[in-house]
Amino acid sequence: MKSNKTARKLLYLVTALAVVCILFFAYYLFAYIQRTAHTAEIQRQSEIISEISRLYQDVVQTARDLLNNDEIVAHIYIPGTSINYAVVHGVDNEFYLYHDVLRKPNSNGSIFLDYLNSPCFTDISTILYGHNMENGTMFHDLGLFKEKEFFEENESIFVTTLYETLHYEIFAVFTTHVNFNYIIVDFADYYEFLNLVYEMKDRAAHLRDVTITENDKILILSTCTAIGRTGRIVVVGRLKF
Predict the structure, then answer these.
(1) Domains in the chain and their CATH numbers?
(2) Are 102 and 113 in contact (CB under 8 A)?
C-alpha cells in the first residue's frame, strides 16, 4: 500500500513537471514566433522607407502618407550601417519603445525623437532613441562605432526633415550607465550645454577633433548595451549644415 502511494505521488510529480515544461515550451515558442513576426514587419517597413528615400524627394511627407502616420517627422540614414529608418515623435518617450511606425505593438519599437525636442531638429541638443536589437535592426549598429577603425572611417549622419536634410559629423562615442544624465533638451544657459559636451568628450572611447561652441547644435543617438539594462551606447554628432 505504501509503495502504491509513493508511486502515485511520483506520477503526480512527473505529470506536474511535464505540464510545466509544456507550458514553458509553448510560451517560448509563442514568444519566438512573435519576435520573428515583429522582426519581419520591421524589415518590411525598412524596405518601404528605403524605397521612399530612393524614389522621392519629399521623403517624410511620402512616408506619412504611405504609412498613415503624421507622427513621422524625419528620416535617418547612417552610411556604413543598416540604419535607414523613419523617425517618429510621440507624446512621450514610452509609446514608440514597443510600437512600430504603423503604431502597432512591436517588440522592436521605432526610432523616435525625444518628446521634448522640436520635430524640426532646431534644438541645441536633439536626442534620438532606438533599441539595440539582436536581430540587427533599429540602433543595433551604433555598437559598430565602438571599434576605432569603423569610427575613423564613418563620420556622417544624415537626417531629413519635412523642410531640409541635415548633415551631422560624428565626434564622440561612449558607453555609460543611466546615472550619467546626457539626455538634456533644455539648458539653463550655454555654459550648461558646453559642460555636457565636455563631459561626453571626457567619456568618449573614440573622439574626433571637432570644436563645439555655443553656436553649434548636436545630435545624440542613444541605445542600450548588450549587457545589463542600465548600460547605454551613445553616439554624438555636430550639425555641419
Answers:
(1) 39-239 (2.40.260.10)
(2) no
